[in-house]
Amino acid sequence: MNKNSILVVEDDRPIRNLIITALKTHDYKYLEAENGTSAILEASSHNPDIVLLDLGLPDIEGVEVIKKIRMWSNMPIIVISARNEDMDKIEALDAGADDYITKPFSVEELLARIRVTQRRLALIQTGEMQEESIFTNGELKIDYTAGCTYLRGEELHLTPIEYKLLCLLSRNVGKVLTHTFITQQIWRRSSENDVASLRVFMATLRKKLETEKSDVSYIQTHVGIGYRMLRIE
Asked: Which UniProt keywords apply (predicted)?
């Protein structure tokens, strides 16, 4: 039995049943809610490990549910929605969602996203993301205390902004970070110019990380939305 319990918030019964069947097949514990009010009650009463949340709920907008949960909990929230506009995704992610899946979706993709979230959750629960001074991901190593970064054992020479970006992504590995969130964290503001600067710095950082010696991609671009550091097995 998987340790993590998952709250499924979906008003469309066939879709809810599809998700629950997939969870049961893979031995996940689950709770279910068909509207925002029930979702908030279930989340506060049972404190699930992960929330799968539809945005188009009959009583409360899913984004409002995210905001209410974020007032008292950092439990991972994966949005599953038919809304595929960038602004819908950005609004949900900025409100505090950890990931976003667009309907129609495959069960395999959903389970993969859950596994990524589980790994991130495990790191948080063991305190590694907050307390460890060394971060490792594939052949990438960051020594937070020394302020040094290594790739395949060789030190990477990063600019201060590149290093801050890499640290921000690594401390949120597996989570999509929006342009607004990143620029506010790096420059304490967010404007079109800041987003343009972010793209430039991210391009130079990726060039240093993703060399010809390796075909591994550490940073995933979500066009029009932001970036995510991938967990390398």
From this structure: Cytoplasm, DNA-binding, Phosphoprotein, Transcription, Transcription regulation, Two-component regulatory system
